[in-house]
Amino acid sequence: MWRVLRAKGKQSSRLARAWGRLRRSGLWHRPALVPTAFGVALSTGLLALLALTWATDTLNWRVGQIADKTIKAPRTATFESKLLTAQRRKEAYDDARNVVLVRDPAVGTTQLDALNRLLAQLDAIRADHAQPPNVAAQKAQAALDGLSAEDAQLLVTMNDQSWGRVETEARRLLSLVMADTVRPEDVASVKESLFLRVNPSLSPNEARLAIDLARPFIRANVQVDEERTKAAREAAAAQVQPVYVTVQAGQVIVRDGDVITPEILEKLEYFGLLAPRLTWERFVGLSGLLVVITAIFTVTLYRFLQPTRQARQFLLIGAMVLSVVAVGRFVFMNPAVRPLFPAAGAIMLLAILLDVRVAAITGTFTGLYLGAIAGLSYEVVLLTALTSLVGALVIWRAERALTFLWSVLAVGGTAAVLSILFALIDRSLTPSQALMLVVEGGINGALSASLCFLSFSLLGRLLGITTHLQLLELAHPNQPLLSRLVREAPGTYHHSLVVGNLAEAAAEAIGADPLLTRVGVLYHDIGKVLRPSFFVENQANRANVHDTLDPLTSAQLIKAHVTDGVRLAKKARLPRPIVEMIEQHHGTMLIKYFYSKALAAGEPVDEAAFRYPGPKPQTKEAAIIMLADGVEAAVRAAAQSGKLYEGDANGRRSTALEEIVDRVIHERLEDGQLDECDLTLRELGEIRRVFLTILEGIYHPRIEYPETPRPAVAADDGNLAPAPVAGQTA
Question: Collapsing DSSP states into helix, strand and coil, what is residue 422?
Fold first, then answer.
């Protein structure tokens, strides 16, 4: 056991070292590597899932076997039953009325000759008077099968005149009958009707003997015309219309314990539930289809969703897709629960944790995956994709728990409407069936929203993904770090609020995440709570402590608020994006005030010692915070020094504000602070416009209210004295 554990430990160590070398090599950070690994891993997972469950959703039944489960129709369908159609056509083909017969005149002649030979033989027996009558009767019975002993005795004993009338009548009867068409099926009836045709002038004995003699020689005198019969049969079969069978959704096709019949097998085969799925051609085809879908899915994510090129995001997407497909693989085996399958819940989860575009694309491709494994069902594709899209659109900016209730209605309503429309396409729909579809849609919506609500927080924490609800919670002033900031560094807190307004508006204008940006701003200077008096916004009515410090020491103290902030944020378990914003909100900028002060003092200066530790902003949100932080501080300093509207305080717009905003943005551009984020020049222009609009509203010139003249009052000496004047400014 110890050797096994040690071997596993060594193996884990080797894997860890290999992973470390991969990360250090930089290959993992190449743009196409993560999507490529995602596509390969997802394809492998789907193919493994397909191979492992290949035989689970098929029925290997044959006619005569006993069903071991109850199978219901997965959907309503009307299809041509080839089995019943073939049976009807065979019945028409075999119909005796389609047999074409032609009369054969030679049959009558042949039979009449045979009768004559018999009569000649009987004449010889009657003519042999030497033999006893009983012997002659026995010979007569031997000559004519079916002749009774009584009639044989009568035949050999009757006189020649009577016998002559019997012979003549026998020949006449046979000739009369064979002159007509006698079908094989009519032979018996013709024989039975001979007594109706016998000459009534004969005695009863003579008539009976004549019938006995003629009856054995009556036979069908027609033959089948093969060519005409075949043509008639084929024509009759061709006239049979195809037989269509309608199976309602949820209708039982076979019950547990039933004997499998050809009709049952045909229905199972139509719904794709039979063993033909087990062919290798089908496996190859379905596997290839899944790989193609995965390739297009991967390229779509890579081309259009830049933010998702992170391994953990691809990991979450792949896990969601594989989970939905794996569960769907088994759920779809039971058509009764198909409408209840909450595939939209996983997609809504992606909308909350990642992005609505990611969720929309993933929902569409998940629908394609499920449709493929469900027997290329377009209903499954549309139902999954559209309910996922609607759920994602409703839930992705979830800021209140009530949003989840709206998602129940949206997903449930969409599922119900789609199910009703599918049912109307296939068949007529009764009110009770429509009501049942509405109930099933509602259950689907409730399950989807519940799945999303119960798991988004856990998955977000496991994967380090921050949700909107988490951000809203962090933005509340009663959060411990924010409460401390309000109490111990109120100037910094006020600065954060103003910067938050600037940054949030700018983020919304360029399509970044405004809530994440605002929360990041609230915490970006949290490190100042450790030494609030070292920062000017918290030095009201107090001397500046930096006046007594050398420039390098002051710069080190100023820089420390970044590392202190990161440490406090990690200790408070703030989300990683917030911690990164604290790290990056100054980038590697130069602390110019103390750097210039050190240069002016003539001391040897190392520029790197006066720069923030960085890193530079990596995201649009972090870059916006850097710009808003610098702009607000610069504009406030200009406003407090009276330079913002100097010489232009009559309400007209001052160019100083635009100059300050432009200078702050250009300084950071020229210093390369925005080189590692994906802001574009167009977005920078939009950010500048938003900053100016808000700052002009905050730092607008104030108008001094005119003094209000008051009426003079009478002095004690009777002279009028001016009233006291109260001045106001707004």
Answer: helix
* pTM of the predicted structure, to 2 decimals: 0.55
User: What is 517-537 written as a DSSP string?
Assistant: HHHHHHHHTGGGGSSGGGSGG
Amino acid at the residue 46: L
User: pLDDT by residue (tens digit) across 606-625?
Assistant: 888 889 988 999 989 999 99
CA distance to 102, 117, 119, 217, 563, per residue, from 105 (Å): 10, 19, 22, 14, 121
Rounded-to-integer distance, Cα 128 and Cα 143, Å: 15
Distance CA 621, CA 517 (A): 5
Round to whole Å and give the CA distance between 166 and 213: 9
Nearest to 602 by CA among 652, 565, 550: 550
Cβ-based burial of 153 (10 A; exposed 0-12, middle 13-18, buried ≥19) = middle
Exposed/middle/buried for 126, CB within 10 Å: 0-12, 13-18, 19+? Answer: middle
Give me the amino acid identity at 582: I
Give every CB contact of residue 231 below 8 A, 6+ residues apart in sequence. Answer: none
Q: Under a CB-based contact definition with an 8 Å cutoff, are residues 252 and 71 in contact?
A: yes
For 69, the token pair is 């489960």
The predicted-structure confidence for 632-680, as pLDDT tens digits, reads as follows 888 888 877 776 665 554 545 567 788 889 999 999 989 888 888 888 8
Residues 6+ apart with CB under 8 A from 586: 562, 612, 614, 626, 629
Give the tens place of pLDDT for each residue, 204-225.
999 999 999 999 999 988 888 8
Q: Please give the Cα distance from 282 to 278 (Å, whole number).
A: 7
Task: Give just the sign of the alpha carbon dihedral 476, 479, 485, 488.
Answer: positive
Residues 357-375 have pLDDT tens digits of: 888 999 999 988 888 877 7
Residue 449 CB neighbour total at 10 angstroms: 27
